[in-house]
Each structure stands twice: as C-alpha cells, then as structure tokens.
Design a protein that fits this description.
By secondary structure, this protein is of the alpha+beta class. It has five helices and 20 strands. Keywords: Coiled coil, Signal.
C-alpha cells in the first residue's frame, strides 16, 4: 500500500469530519460569489500574500497578484477550454522559510457555474517531498448561487510546507475563470499565522473591517484611503477618556487646522452684553490670579486646553479689550474737549 494512498485515505476521513465546520474567516457575500474579508478578535493577523510570498501562474493572462487584491475581478485568471493552469504559492520565495504548522483552509473562487473538470493541490515540505489533495477533497461553500467557492481543509499532518501548487483543469467545452484565491492559517499565535490573501502590492482591499466578538464594527479602512476609527492614539495607548477620540503624545505639525465652532463671541458687541468694569476685572485678578472666563494655569496643566473653545475665549477677551479701548478713546476725546474749553475760558 503506497504512502500516497494512505495519505489520501487519511485526508478523506479528515475532510468528512470537517464538512460541518463554520467558515472561520468570511461572513459577507461578494460580487462574484466571493466573500468580504473581516477581522474579528477571535481571528488571526492579516498578511499580504504578494509582498510576503511569491505567487505565480502558468496561464498567459494570469496575474496571480490580482487573485489576492480583493477586487473580485471577473477575469483575474482564465483557463481555455480543455486547458489547465498551475497556481503557485511559494512560502519561502521572498526570504521566508517553510511554514511549520500550515493547518488551515485553502479557497478558490470561480465565476459563474463553470468549475474545474479536475483539481488537485500539492503541498511540498522543506525536503521536496509532497502530499496531494484531489478534487474530491474540496467542498463548495459558496453562499451565492450560481457562483462556486471551493474550500479545502488542510490537516495537521501536512507539516511543514514550503510551497503550494494548485493545478486546475478547465472543462472540455467551457472557459474556466478563477476570480480569487485565499489561504488561511488557523494556528493562532505563531509568526506565520494569518490570512494570506486580499492585499495586492499596491491595492488595499475594498473594505477592511475590524469588529469585536459580537460582530459590531469598530473600525474600517477603504481602498480609497478613507478610514473610520472610534478612537486613535499616536505615541500613546492611554486613550481611556470617553470624551476624546484622538490622542497624540508628541508634537503635531500641520499646514492648516480647521476647528468647527457652534458659538463665536461676537455677542460681546451686542447692546445687552454686560461688560465688567475695569475695577471689577482688577478685583477678579487680585482674587483668582487670571482673567475672568479663562482657565487658570493649574487647570490647563491638569486638563489641557481645548483649541476651539480656547480660541473663542481669547477672541472674547480681545473683543472686550476693544470695547475698553473704544470707551477710553471716548473718555479721552471728552477730556480733550473739556481741556480746550477751559483754555479758551482762561484767555477771556
């Protein structure tokens, strides 16, 4: 009895045992039967396949990087009728070593209902020995008809792995279209663990979402560069203040900062505004050591300075100072007129 036959028997049993497993990674339908990627607290770290590993294809129009870019290309790789294509994931192709624990899931997505006429995967260890998985070892886990999404569970005994070869044969009278390829390592905590898919060399996935264990989305990043975060710490992980969303421990340099304000202190110039007299201001300073309406130095050290409200408060003081100056100008002009009147009276 050959070693290959024994291996096939074992994998058949293992595949049967895992048929009822819930997909551990994907949870939303994509354009062509694929599913959108999400990263939850109970999942692994994401890695870029095309930057970490060397991937390739034997098909002339095959752009294997597109199989990992998450764009759901309708014709990412096409295989002519009765033709075949070999897709390769070289786990040590860019300076890495063989994966010590490759147990996980391998996925292939096909556009429309045309699936392979036959399909196999070959896992190579670091010595060049290999183990084969046949078409019967895969299961269709697509949630969107009529698209096909094949999944292969990789068992523990495939250990280690240095290269993965996927060979797909097209039907005799139909073109085969492969739109996405994914490789998910389920051994959490190891250096190689993660989802090896979805990121091309220059393209971020359409929508990358981070959710908690109750599947509540906490953050998301889009391919256009937009990101939505509930809170962000730069240079610090002390972000526990419920009323603050951005924390930076260090200098912030910007060409321009725009602050929205609900109230602006032009109300100082309204006729019913109660302007303190200068003696009242002097008494307040003598008692508290700072201007009325502004925080003390100790308060700023303890709680910081809110830029928007702070600018409004400073403008309020400038406008009040303007009123004081205008009043003094009126008083001086009145004194000058009185002085001129007294001089004229003295000459008479």
């Amino acid at each position: 009895m050959s070693k290959t036959y024994i291996a096939l028997c074992i994998i058949t049993l293992l595949t049967t045992a895992t048929m009822a497993q819930v997909d551990p990674v994907f949870n939303a339908s994509g354009h062509y039967g694929q599913t959108n990627i999400s990263y939850n607290l109970n999942e692994n770290v994401l890695y870029s396949a095309t930057s970490r590993f060397r991937v390739g294809s034997t098909v002339e129009n095959g752009n294997s990087g597109r199989l990992f870019d998450g764009d759901f290309d309708r014709a990412a790789i096409t295989v002519a009728a009765a033709g075949n294509a070999t897709l390769t994931i070289d786990l040590k192709g860019k300076g890495g070593l063989s994966v010590a624990q490759p147990k996980g899931y391998l996925y292939l997505n096909f556009y429309e209902s045309n699936s392979c006429d036959s399909l196999y995967v070959r896992f190579y260890d670091s010595t060049g020995e290999f183990a084969d998985f046949q078409y019967a070892d895969w299961e269709n886990v697509s949630t969107t008809s009529p698209f096909i999404r094949l999944r292969l569970h990789i068992p523990d005994w495939v250990n280690p792995t240095s290269k993965i070869e996927i060979k797909a044969f097209a039907p005799s009278a139909a073109v085969l279209t492969i739109t996405e390829m994914e490789y998910y390592l389920e051994n959490r905590g190891q250096f190689e663990g993660g989802l090896v898919s979805k990121w091309g060399s220059n393209t971020l996935y359409d929508l990358l979402q981070f959710a908690d264990t109750s599947n509540t989305v906490k953050a998301k990043i889009q391919s256009n560069g937009n990101a939505v975060l509930s809170k962000l710490g730069i240079g610090t992980d002390n972000i526990n203040d419920d009323s603050t969303v951005l924390f930076a421990n260090g200098r912030i340099r910007a060409r321009e900062i725009k602050v929205d304000a609900d109230i602006w202190p032009d109300y100082v110039f309204e006729k019913n505004y109660k302007l303190l007299t200068l003696p009242q201001v002097q008494a307040y300073i003598n008692q508290y050591g700072h201007l009325p309406g502004l925080p003390s130095a100790a308060m700023v050290v303890q709680k910081g300075w809110e830029l928007g409200k702070g600018q409004a408060a400073l403008l309020q003081k400038i406008e009040e100072l303007t009123l004081y100056l205008l009043q003094q100008q009126k008083d001086m002009e009145g004194l000058q007129r009185e002085l001129m009147r007294l001089k004229a009276a003295r000459k008479q």
